[in-house]
Amino acid sequence: MTRAAREEFLAGVHVGVLGVDDPRAGGAPLVVPVWYSYAPGGDVVVQTGRDSLKARLIGAAGRFSLCAQQEEPPYRYVSVEGPVVDVADPADPDERRAIAVRYLGAREAGDYLAATSGQLDDDVTFRMCPERWRTADFSSFAASVFT
């Protein structure tokens, strides 16, 4: 993918898969689905519980990776990795709202945020500056096979 295409794709609404080094169990990474936000040229933003395993491992490693994919043909993915460049503790409520609206829409986000309002004090925000990108776009292959 071109730079513009990969950034546009990552900015789309996908459940991301976050990976972070986990030295506890023989070095296999922790890999978990997450909601995230990204705007072209910016940082990847994720929020999680301050005391979660994910937060502890990100804090220790100082970096993480995130992969977003399109789960139906034509298959595409974008994977980024890089250092954590900022940690906001506690998480910003406006940013939490923006991420919830991104994934749920305004109405459902309001219900979700009300139901999880106590969680805000326990969440932190990590910002990662993408250093390495990996991408694949099977659109041209799909066009030749499925037409």
From TrEMBL:
Q: What is this protein called?
A: Pyridoxamine 5'-phosphate oxidase family protein
Q: What range does the record give for the signal peptide?
A: none
Top-level taxon of origin: Bacteria
Question: Does the entry feature the keyword Oxidoreductase, yes or no?
Answer: yes
Which InterPro entries does the record associate with it?
F420H2_bilvrd_red/Heme_oxyg, Pyridox_Oxase-rel, Split_barrel_FMN-bd
SUPFAM superfamilies to which the protein is assigned, alphabetical? FMN-binding split barrel
Keywords noted in UniProt: Oxidoreductase
